[in-house]
Amino acid sequence: MMLPILRDQFATETWIIGWIISLVDAVGGVSGPLAGFLSKQFGTGVIIMACGGVFGLALIAASFVTTATQLAITLILFAGISSGLSAVVVKDTVGRCFGKNLATATGISYTGGSIGMIVFPPLIQLFLSSYGWRGTMLLIGGISMHLAVCGALILRAEIPEIANYQQLPENGLLATHTENQKWSCGTFWKNVFKILQVSLLCDFRYWSMAAMVCSTLICYDMWIIYFVSQAQSKGISIGEAATIVAIAGIFSLAARVIQGFLIDRGIISPWISVVISVNICSASYFASAWLASYWTLMVSSILILFFDAALTCMLDVCTKELLGVNLLAGAYGWFGIKTATLRIIIGFLPGLIYDITGSYQAAFIIIGFIQLVPMIPLLMLKYLKYI
């Protein structure tokens, strides 16, 4: 919602602000492969507490910037890294803790995003009208710091892991024991590859899931970043656009609950659900390119957020089913790198198309084609009998 406001405040182009927002997510994706290692070293709760504090402080600091460059540096370096790390460790934790009713647990873990879609559009609109964009940044930063409290709750519930500790020799000769553990360059890199789970990059199943996850995330990101601006370009006010997002957020919340019920009770396969959701999301993106009235955009937004919410949860379930629980942290981390690359390369594209043509029509047609990409690996996985 703040893209048009920030564009006007910094007297810059739409694509520049859009790209800054994409780069925030991109840097978070690049930091993803380290999340599993840091979580094992310090615990999930500690990581989330630290990320919550840094993310909130980044938004507070952003309220004092005076140029688009300063805004980019503040958000990309601090908000980006902290959001990326916390996202990976949360997904990994849910996957590890829930074997039964995983779809339901995953859906519940994503409800915060849906509730945010319901609450934040009108809230941000109120903040903007009452306090301006700087006050809005301050308030959102303060709200975001509550993530540290969530980390504290997880920290309290965590059970210390001692599996990685080595037992000392019975004779207590620590010096002798240490001497026998000789490190070499080869051993060092072997451990690095093991920590980062580089072996995933040689696994066809991983690349298939990466194509599905990354294309879905980049399409959703571009919709979130540019929808309000697109609605404004069609004569819809910011207030009306906020209402559309909030109502669609309610359907998004419902989708996360419904998909868990259907999948965990075996009513529908997660893979079939992915096929259905991919095609409906893609069709809705295509339709958004031509729709211009308030109610038609409302319907397309509801379809996009409903089926994207379900699709996001189901892809997490399919990732665990296809790769196994031990590779989840590494998979999510490397997904982040690839999504980050896409965000850097094409994250600014809808804004650039609008600046050149004065319309988002071509941009949303491209987004619709990108959302169809998951159908290719799905067909290949089915042909190779992985699913």
TrEMBL record:
Source organism: Acanthaster planci
Main location: membrane
Statement: the UniProt record of this protein carries the keyword Transmembrane helix: yes
Compartments, as annotated in UniProt: Membrane
Transmembrane intervals: 16-38, 45-65, 71-90, 102-124, 136-155, 206-229, 235-255, 267-287, 293-315, 327-354, 360-381
Pfam family membership, one: MFS_1
Alphabetically ordered keywords of this record: Membrane, Transmembrane, Transmembrane helix
Protein's UniProt name: Monocarboxylate transporter 12-like
Topology relative to the membrane: Multi-pass membrane protein
PROSITE patterns named in the record: MFS
Alphabetical list of Gene3D superfamilies matching this protein: MFS general substrate transporter like domains (1.20.1250.20)
Record gene name: LOC110983325
One of the record's GO cellular component terms: membrane
Keyword Transmembrane: yes
Single GO molecular function: monocarboxylic acid transmembrane transporter activity
InterPro entries with a match to the protein in the record: MFS, MFS_dom, MFS_trans_sf, Proton-linked_MCT
Domain annotation Major facilitator superfamily (MFS) profile: ranges: 1-386
